[in-house]
């Protein structure tokens, strides 16, 4: 063989249909690894060019030509089978030594293909497929291949580790340039560019979703994780993203926020490898941006909105209608009886819009009406719209109404039950219509015709199949029922849904809306707090608005709405719960009496969600309004009024208005006790809140009496392992620490943590908070090693489970930073303390005790860096602010005073320090008792200042008392005792309290 022929043999052109790119890429890698030059050539013959010329152009490619044959390869064009046989035989007669083939086809292929003697790679493992490929090309399989790079193409018969995306559209046509452009944009991204995010933007009906689906299949083998997310509703998107965590084998609990954060961490770390996430129907960037992962993951979104262009890190790619060649090819494949001219005329009439082409071609394929007659109908002027107002066509040709009206009329004529079913389906969320719910309804919940339809499996299947053939809907089958597939859900284009609804009379709309609501009511588990039912509620929530549930006056429907709100609240979906609450609130305020029970329940939930989301001023305004309305309509001891006052008290507690909150709690507790008894759940809840308010007011002995009583009753009436009992126990143990009994606090919290470990995992919020409190108590008891481990672990888990801005996370981070300041990393402590102070300022305002206390802690950290003047300024501001927020006679103010005296001492204001330390020592002894740790710290500080003034005798007396008392109460080895003996200046850490 001469050198030229040898070079030709080493060059192989691979011809493939874009549909099967994964096989082409794998084959190219196998050949390239063995020293061959490879060129990929996508096969897409044009119908306006003679087939001989198309195949001839392929024959002129350099080197040998390898055809990768599949079902799609012979469907492109489309090229008649006779042409395939004729042209392929003629080509092989002239240069059969240059052509070879492999096949993965599962359908009959043209007879002439046998001349290529294709190697069948279907259903083989990688080793055998490679052996057959190489043998067909006369390449020695034993020839060593270069080691495969990490990014080597995956063998197509071995899907990615995680692959969950809609079924492939076997009628997908064209779009090869768009798909290659998307691929290039994603793979051309570098880490320095930020996240790789592409938004497919275009008007409805241009095929954005189908392009995204095809991308996941065509390029899916290049990824290790491929995950599809319906982003039309935030709650559904979060559920879907969270569902990826267990599929990845991540160690997570049930809380959705924790799962999403774990998924984001895995995506950032590229575990288990290359990622592709698709967010379909992403119309609201404000609701979805936080769900997009950072890092190397590829993210593909579809949207009709242009708002994504203003979101950093995203690139918007416009999606056009079909090219004319794509339109003609699609129509002729779907309706082969049309000739090229008729297909071209149809495409021109519907402006090459894929949605309308699909509808029209499907109808023409199923009906014998001449194409010319159908085209004449499309060109006729449309009639008046059924309803006045906005034109539903938007940017579409007038022909869309005619096309859909024609297909709908055919469906009504041939299958009236299916037509009625179609109308009902238009009253569910179009992206995921849960048809399975229809088959689960009670007898009589559906109109008679539909009730009979859903109970006859054969008629039900035929009706759904008819919808798929004649209308703009798509069926999704259960993937684990291969032998007897069942339709799990239906997808309907939103524009088509709008068309259907607008073609109904007002009375028909009410009828179908009522039926849809009844289907949803029947599916309501009525247990929104039960984690076992969360998947069902996630299914129901997106359909409420489409079914008209917000306008229903039926009590069962209103209960369904309230249950869905409660599910979102319990699940921690505060943003989505808030959006749903506000939407429902607008409807119910308009339609219901202000004193209606459902409206009051909704407002109660709305206020609670606002409080949990950190919107305290709004929660207060709503709470005040509800209380005022109930006071006007209900007697003063009505349970609803008392519940509203108790809820308002919780909001005031979060706002730092502790005295007002205590009054409301006290009133609610007393009136609940009069009506239901002192041990009733309502009474205990209000009394617990009352004790918590007293704790925050610094009235520790009074708080102790109430909280101990509530704890003992719950231990007796419930059980020691009940979550309310454990919560009471944790709050009581926290108070015991504040009273200075560190060993008892540690002992109680150790038991609570052990019980919580038996009841739930360490990621449960109650477990995290209990671990955190045990860490603080361990630190106060002098066990720094265990304290550091618990505080660090709690801080990490809180950020992951609750989120970095959650109030409880800030509490834990504040205490962890204080520990790091004294026993770990000062720079980390300084950074975290500054961040906590800033977030408290945003969340609560500059005058809230938590914000002020955080600034005081920041002053201590700054002082450790040697910036004594700045530390003094922060300490002065904290002392003055705390006195204004909670009064001078409060442990928090006394603690700020202790720190301020130390800051003055470091700034050489010895007399100023002495005056304040003497005042602080007196106040702490009077308020907390002379043996309380804060009182003894103040006395130690006073001794230090007296020595600075030369008053050694008085200083010695205070020092002896402090050391002796610390020895008696905490022991000789306790750090406080040793620090006092070594004359180290004491300090006080502010501990924000979880509510």
Secondary structure layout:
Elements: H1 3-10, E1 11-16, H2 21-32, E2 37-42, H3 51-59, E3 64-69, H4 81-95, E4 99-103, E5 119-120, H5 126-136, E6 162-164, H6 176-187, E7 196-201, H7 208-218, E8 225-230, H8 234-242, H9 244-247, H10 256-268, E9 275-280, H11 285-288, E10 298-303, E11 315-318, H12 324-334, H13 340-349, H14 354-366, H15 371-379, H16 399-414, H17 416-425, H18 435-439, H19 448-454, H20 457-470, E12 473-477, E13 487-492, H21 494-502, H22 506-522, H23 534-540, H24 555-571, H25 574-591, H26 597-612, H27 616-633, H28 639-654, H29 658-676, H30 681-696, H31 700-717, H32 723-738, H33 742-759, H34 765-781, H35 784-801, H36 807-823, H37 826-844, H38 849-864, H39 868-886, H40 891-906, H41 910-928, H42 933-948, H43 952-970, H44 975-981
Parallel strand pairs: 1-2, 1-3, 3-4, 4-5, 6-8, 7-10, 7-11, 8-9, 9-10
Antiparallel strand pairs: 12-13
Query: What is the helix content?
Result: 55-70%
N-end to C-end Cα span: 85 Å
> Describe the biggest sheet?
6 strands, parallel
Helix count, DSSP H or I runs of 4 or more residues: 44
Overview of this structure, please?
The chain has 995 residues and is an alpha/beta fold. 59% of the residues lie in helices and 7% in strands. The chain contains 44 helices and 13 strands. It has a 6-stranded parallel sheet with strand order 6-8-9-10-7-11, sandwiched between helices. Helix 35 (784-801) packs antiparallel against helix 36, helix 37 runs antiparallel to helix 38 and helix 43 packs antiparallel against helix 44. The longest helix is centred in the C-terminal third of the chain and has 19 residues, at 658-676. The protein is elongated.
């Amino acid at each position: 063989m001469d050198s030229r022929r040898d070079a030709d043999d080493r060059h192989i052109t691979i011809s493939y249909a874009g549909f099967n790119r994964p096989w082409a890429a794998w084959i190219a890698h196998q050949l390239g690894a063995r020293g061959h030059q490879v060129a990929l050539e996508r096969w897409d013959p044009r119908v306006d060019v003679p087939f001989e010329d198309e195949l001839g152009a392929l024959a002129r490619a350099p080197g040998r030509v390898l055809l990768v044959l599949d079902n799609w390869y012979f469907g492109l064009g489309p090229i008649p089978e006779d042409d395939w046989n004729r042209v392929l035989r003629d080509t092989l007669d002239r240069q059969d030594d240059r052509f070879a083939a492999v096949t993965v086809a599962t359908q009959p292929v043209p007879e002439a293909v046998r001349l290529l003697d294709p190697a069948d790679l279907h259903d083989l493992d990688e080793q055998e497929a490679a052996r057959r490929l190489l043998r067909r090309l006369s390449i020695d399989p034993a020839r060593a291949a270069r080691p495969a790079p990490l990014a080597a193409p995956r063998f197509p018969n071995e899907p990615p580790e995680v692959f969950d995306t809609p079924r492939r559209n076997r009628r997908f046509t064209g779009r090869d340039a768009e798909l290659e452009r998307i691929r290039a944009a994603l793979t051309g991204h570098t880490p320095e560019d930020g996240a790789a995010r592409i938004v497919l933007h275009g008007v409805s009906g241009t095929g954005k979703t189908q392009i995204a689906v095809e991308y996941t299949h065509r390029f899916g083998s290049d990824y290790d994780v491929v995950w599809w997310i319906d982003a039309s509703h935030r709650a559904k998107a979060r559920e879907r993203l969270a569902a990826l965590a267990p599929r990845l084998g991540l160690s997570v609990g049930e809380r959705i926020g924790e799962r999403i954060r774990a998924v984001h961490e895995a995506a950032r770390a590229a575990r288990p490898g290359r990622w592709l996430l698709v967010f379909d129907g992403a119309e609201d960037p404000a609701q979805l941006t936080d769900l997009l992962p950072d890092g190397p993951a590829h993210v593909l979104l579809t949207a009709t909105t242009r708002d994504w262009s203003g979101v950093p890190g995203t690139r918007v790619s416009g999606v056009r209608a079909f090219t004319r060649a794509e339109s003609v090819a699609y129509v002729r494949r779907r309706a082969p009886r049309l000739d090229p001219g008729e297909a071209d005329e149809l495409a021109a009439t519907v402006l090459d819009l894929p949605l309308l082409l699909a509808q029209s071609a499907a109808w023409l394929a199923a009906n014998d009406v001449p194409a010319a007659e159908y085209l004449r109908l499309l060109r006729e002027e449309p009639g008046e719209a059924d309803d006045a107002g906005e034109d539903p066509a938007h940017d579409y040709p007038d022909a869309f109404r005619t096309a859909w009206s024609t297909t709908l009329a055919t469906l009504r004529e041939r299958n009236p039950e299916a037509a009625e079913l179609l109308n009902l389906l238009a009253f569910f969320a179009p992206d995921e219509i849960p048809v399975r719910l229809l088959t689960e309804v009670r007898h009589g919940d559906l109109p008679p015709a539909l009730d009979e339809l859903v109970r006859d499996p054969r008629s039900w299947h035929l009706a759904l199949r008819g919808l798929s053939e004649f209308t703009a809907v798509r069926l999704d089958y259960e993937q684990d029922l291969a032998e007897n597939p069942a339709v799990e859900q239906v997808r309907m284009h939103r524009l088509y849904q709008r068309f259907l609804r607008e073609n109904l009379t007002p009375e028909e709309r009410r009828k179908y809306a009522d039926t849809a609501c009844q289907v949803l009511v029947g599916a309501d588990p009525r247990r929104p707090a039960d984690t076992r039912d969360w998947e069902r509620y996630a299914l129901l929530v997106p359909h409420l608005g489409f079914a008209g549930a917000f306008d229903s006056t039926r009590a069962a429907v209103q209960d369904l709405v309230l249950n869905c709100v409660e599910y979102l609240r319990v699940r921690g979906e505060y943003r989505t719960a808030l959006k749903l609450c506000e939407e429902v609130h607008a409807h119910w305020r308009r339609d219901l009496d202000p004193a209606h029970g459902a409206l009051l329940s909704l407002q109660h939930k709305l206020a609670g969600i606002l409080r949990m989301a950190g919107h305290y001023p709004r929660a207060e305004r709503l709470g005040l309004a509800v209380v005022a309305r109930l006071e006007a309509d209900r007697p003063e001891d009505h349970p609803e009024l008392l519940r509203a006052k108790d809820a308002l008290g919780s909001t005031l507690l979060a706002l730092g208005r502790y005295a007002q909150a205590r009054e409301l709690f006290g009133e609610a507790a007393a009136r609940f006790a009069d009506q239901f008894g002192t041990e009733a759940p309502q009474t205990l809840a209000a009394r617990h809140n009352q004790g918590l308010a007293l704790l925050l007011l610094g009235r520790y002995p009074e708080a102790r009496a109430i909280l101990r009583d509530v704890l003992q009753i719950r231990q007796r009436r419930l059980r020691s392992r009940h979550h309310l009992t454990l919560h009471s126990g944790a709050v009581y143990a926290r108070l015991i620490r504040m009273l200075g009994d560190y060993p008892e606090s540690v002992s109680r919290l150790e038991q609570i943590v052990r019980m919580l470990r038996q009841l739930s995992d360490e990621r449960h919020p109650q477990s995290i908070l209990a671990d955190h409190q045990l860490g603080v108590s361990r630190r106060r008891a002098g066990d720094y090693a265990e304290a550091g481990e618990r505080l660090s672990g709690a801080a990490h888990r809180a950020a992951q489970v609750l989120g970095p801005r959650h109030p409880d996370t800030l509490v834990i981070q504040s205490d962890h930073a204080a520990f790091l300041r004294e026993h770990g990393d000062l720079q980390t402590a300084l950074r975290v303390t500054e961040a906590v102070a800033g977030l408290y300022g945003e969340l609560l305002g500059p005058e809230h005790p938590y914000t002020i206390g955080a600034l005081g802690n920041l002053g201590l950290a700054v002082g450790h860096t040697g910036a004594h003047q700045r530390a003094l300024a922060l300490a002065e501001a904290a002392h003055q602010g705390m006195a204004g927020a909670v009064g001078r006679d409060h442990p928090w103010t006394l603690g700020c005073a202790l720190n301020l005296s130390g800051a003055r001492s470091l700034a050489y204001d010895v007399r100023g320090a002495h005056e304040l330390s003497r005042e602080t020592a007196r106040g702490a002894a009077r308020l907390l008792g002379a043996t309380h740790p804060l009182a003894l710290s103040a006395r130690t500080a006073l001794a230090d200042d007296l020595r600075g003034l030369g008053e050694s005798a008085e200083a010695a007396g205070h020092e002896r008392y402090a050391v002796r008392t610390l020895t008696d109460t905490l022991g000789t080895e306790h750090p406080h005792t040793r620090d006092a003996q070594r004359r180290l200046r004491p300090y006080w850490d502010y501990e924000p309290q979880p509510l």
